[in-house]
Amino acid sequence: MSHPRASSSGTRVLSALRASAVVSAYCLVVVAGLAVVWWLLGWMWVAVLPVCLALLVSTLVWPLARFLRRHGWPPLLVAAVVTAGTVLLVAGLVVVVVLPVAGQATEVATGVSSGVDTVRQWLRGPPFNLGSDQLGSAVDAAIGQLQSSTGEILGTVLSGVGVLGTGLVTIAMAVVLTFFMLKDGPAFLPWLGRQLGGRAGPHVAELGRRCYDALGAFMRSQALVGLADAVGIAIGLLVVGVPLVLPLAVLTFLGAFVPVVGAFVAGAVAVLIALVSNGLTDALIVLGVIVLVQQLEGNVWQPILQGRSLRLHPAIVLLAVVVGGNRAGVVGALLAVPVAAVVAVFWRYGREQLSRSSGPSGRDTAGEAEETDDA
């Protein structure tokens, strides 16, 4: 005769296993669905990338477009003026970066050559004690390897030309899509809600609104943070006397749109230019200025400007940038945090709906969920 307590314990175990199996099955279905979505995104990436870029740009400039709309400008004129102004601004930033670098290319090249000579002299001394013949042989071997790889290098260059052509087409499509988003964007979500209808329509429209607001908060806060970084680093470079101050400041501003990694890359470029042009002492001073500015960004500017609008932990931001960069290079690193912010919006909205449907008081339970997220 079995003991009642043992029978009850076995029943609870079986119930727990059954519940775990059901949850596991749901998770497998979700993972399979995400895999299909990932495959579709990869298959349609040529069309998806311009849409993503247009979304980021339109959320950044939407406050200006909204201001003009509220002052009586027609939507078509607003979209045309804001889009053209954005294109001219970006083109101006590119010119600001490229022309000074090209104008001082000889100076930088001379500095690099001097740096190579310094390294060569260092290698000739202790503890390496490499003679001129050994260094010459190493240089000859490097030149021979370069000559033998000419075909591969040429193929890479031609491939790069193809990539450049594809990039120009992507940029052109993004500009056109930005125009239409600024012109017709406010009517899209209500239209989509009406098309879906039923219970899904209001949820889709609300999710779209929240995602757009999250993207706008990210882009505008990163722009302000990047501007503060660029001004701080430019002042430091001017005081030290490092060349190419304006291009380095612009690079710092653009790097702010790739959190963590962008600031590191821009800082490394600034230190390298200081090392080549001014020497080790000024390079260390520039490194100190960059570290100071980055500390101000992380502890002062970003919390004030970005606040808790995205509510993403710094570890999640770093992991998103690393994964995005590993999967899709610079573009992946650029889109990683906006995608993470959108995923967080979906997660919070789902929790909010579950809390409202299961809690005794929908409003209080949802508020508790929001407080938990904020903590």
Automatic annotation (TrEMBL):
The chain crosses the membrane at residues 21-41, 47-65, 77-102, 157-182, 224-246, 252-276, 316-347. It is a multi-pass membrane protein. Residues 354-375 are annotated as: Disordered. GO terms for biological process: transmembrane transport. InterPro entries: AI-2E-like. One of its GO terms (cellular component) is plasma membrane. It is found in: Cell membrane. It comes from the Bacteria. Pfam families: AI-2E_transport. Keywords: Cell membrane, Membrane, Transmembrane, Transmembrane helix, Transport. Its main location: membrane. Belongs to the autoinducer-2 exporter (AI-2E) (TC 2.A.86) family. PANTHER family: PERMEASE PERM-RELATED (PTHR21716:SF53), TRANSMEMBRANE PROTEIN (PTHR21716). This is AI-2E family transporter. The lineage of its organism: Bacteria, Bacillati, Actinomycetota, Actinomycetes, Nakamurellales.
